[in-house]
Design brief:
Layout: E1 2-9, E2 19-23, E3 27-33, H1 48-62, H2 69-81, H3 89-94, E4 102-108, E5 113-117, E6 121-124, E7 127-130, H4 136-148, H5 154-159, H6 162-174, E8 196-199, E9 206-210, H7 221-234, E10 258-264
Helix pairs in contact: 1-2, 4-6
Length: 265
């Protein structure tokens, strides 16, 4: 595996990223820790998303190289679950929105497979793949509709995104279906039918793995960053061609943390 280029950038320059990149001799992974949407915290010093990302990063660095996709899903779930109190399991079973949660995309060298668990994206040669949450686009459309009713208040939405606040209750309700209608890593069983597996043949491939912090994924980092910059300058609220559940908040360099790695196998 030859690493060509990579970058990891926090959306807020004053905070640490909830995204992560892991490279070992057997795995290359991008991890996107989920930003907390409730008040429950598992660490005094880290956000839930960053804490989940770090747990998963540590697991991958120590994982055996010959894991199958199902074994990986089982073992990484146990790694997260080990950070829950036993007395909390019943409560968390009923409240997925309070769990440590992340999306993960992994290339397995020995299996020559890419595993997409949750909301992530990749390029294999010129072919694009993603695995979006089923509710994300609908909520983004709802947020855009709220903002479009008050177009004169663009600057206000960048300072205080009340349109995002309006969709948070629906987002929390939709999260009750995580690891039922869609897959994430959250310490509970991952439904294999919602894990996207891409199998590669043995010809050389250029591959890009990325978090969803890139609205338009390109085959080079420069091109991906260029399109992100265009989005920031032309549609900072993310309500046009690309719709998102959040904006480029004032003071931030992007609307989300972002991770990108390009390599050749």
């Amino acid at each position: 595996m030859e690493i060509i280029e990579q970058v990891l950038v926090a959306k807020n320059p004053k905070k640490k990223s909830e995204d992560g990149i892991v490279v070992t001799k057997d795995y290359i992974a991008v991890i996107d820790g989920s930003t907390s949407k409730t008040n429950r915290r598992y660490s005094l010093f880290r956000s839930n998303g960053r804490y989940a990302m770090q747990i998963i990063s540590r697991f991958i660095r120590q994982a055996k190289g010959n894991l199958t996709c199902q074994q990986f899903c089982n073992d990484v779930s146990r790694a997260i679950a080990s950070h829950y109190k036993k007395s909390d399991i019943a409560h968390l079973a009923e409240h997925p929105e309070e769990r440590l949660t992340a999306s993960v995309i992994v290339f397995s060298r020995l299996n020559r497979e890419i595993w997409m668990i949750g909301d992530c994206q990749c390029l294999v040669g010129d072919t694009y793949y993603d695995n979006p949450k089923p509710y994300e686009q609908e909520l983004a459309e709802q947020r855009a509709a709220i903002i479009n009713q008050h177009k004169e208040a663009t600057e206000q939405f960048l300072e205080h995104d009340t349109a995002r606040e309006a969709i948070i209750p629906r987002m929390l309700e939709a999260m009750k279906q995580q690891n039922k209608d869609y897959a994430v890593v959250d310490g509970f069983s991952i439904p294999p039918q919602h894990v996207r597996v891409i199998t590669l043949d043995f010809q050389p491939w250029d591959i890009v793995l990325a978090s969803d912090g890139y609205p338009f994924l390109e085959s080079t980092l420069e091109a991906s960053e260029s399109r992100l910059d265009w989005q920031r300058k032309n549609d900072p609220l993310n309500i046009g061609e690309f719709k998102a559940t959040k904006a480029f908040a004032l003071g931030n360099n992007s609307f989300d943390d972002r991770a990108y790695i390009r390599f050749r196998v």
